[in-house]
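pasting for the record
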Amino acid sequence: MVWAVLAAAFHVLGIVSAISAVLHTRTAQGAIAWAVALVTLPYVTVPLWWVFGRRRFAGYYERWADRRDRVDELVRQARADAAAHAVHVERRIPDYEALKALAAWPLTQGNDVDLLVDGEATFADIAAGIDRARLYVLVEFFIVRDDGLGRRLKDRMIAAAARGVKVHFLYDEIGSKGLPRAYLHDLRAAGVQAWPFGTRRGWSNFFQLNFRNHRKIVVVDGLETWVGGHNVGDEYLGLSRSIGPWRDTHVRIAGPAVLGAQAAFLLDWCWATGDLLELDWSSEVARTADRQALIFATGPADRIEIAKLVYTHQLNAARKRVWLATPYFIPEPALISALRLAALRGVDVRVLVPANNDKELVRYASYFYMEDLAGMGIKFLAFREGFMHQKVLLVDDALATIGTHNFDNRSFLLNFEISAVVHDAEFCHRVAAMLEADFARADPIDPTSFARKPLWFRFAMRAARLTAPIQ
């Protein structure tokens, strides 16, 4: 009797979930696949739908509904202060208005931008920045480990708190699942406000396991920020015996663009804690150089697919080159079309991926998409000296984008991410030199050769691409 009731309940849930799939799945193919599977195999697919079928992160903007006016006021103030430094219309880059509308922030002038190559340079610079803090430090990472680098960061935050600096620390509880309670206890005992992001916060969000806060943000006094690919762990310094050398890129920005990173942290903090941070949104931001930059944050709570549109827009604007470095190359159809069109326009399109990926499914899925783009003149390269984890896009001599966005469905639709776009010829020249050095340590990939690979290899490619929606 009990089994009969359970079976009936699963079939009812399967039908209800199938209706939800038809209503909410983005593509017709996906809606059909989910609906058929949920009705015919509910015992297996109902739990999968609850975890992986969800595409909207619920409750993020509703979390502070009772203080919405104050939150909106703080964000409006930040945008107004940034707008005071906005690039004038006559100096705007081509199609700048679309980029501005998608990022919801203006491209600002008066920024200083440093390119930080690999872990030691990045974390030495972050540590020095935290030591300069006088008012507050905001720290947010996807992965934080209790190892040598993790303890270095902890000690810096504790030392800042001892000076009277307000320190706020966010971490993703799934990415940092191994972080011990003692680590957090030490921070809290020293006066650091430390919280998990809490993707499953609230009873209705129990199954939001498929979402991650993948952002890496450090903000000091609202004057400077760091964003990029590094998490906090010894492997990001190349100290892991199993992984070996680690290739990654970060940027430090000082100037009005910092306000975009600070606003992203403010909203994440509100979600995680339910509290507001009354931070300095002064328009008297130090202008130490004249680089143009903006920071855009994206996530599964966005009304539209901002990340995908930003990258598609940049690819479509390219006239000379598109150089992309990403550990996970699983492009959406719109991005595949944009890459094809760029190649057809005669743009120099190069895609750099790691030779040895830390995720086998991603590696074989990437091969599938490379084969799909074969014959277009696109150059694919495999970085051979350790694991390459950087997320860098260089368009012409005009735009360089560096941050946390991987070139995959997870970053564009499922994760909370943040990246910096820099419009400056000298900075782009430095990024180009960095990538040329990476290309010199890479081997060409010939996607046309995949057809001659063994059957198991070709099957693995096609089977792996089936996981693309959740990668």
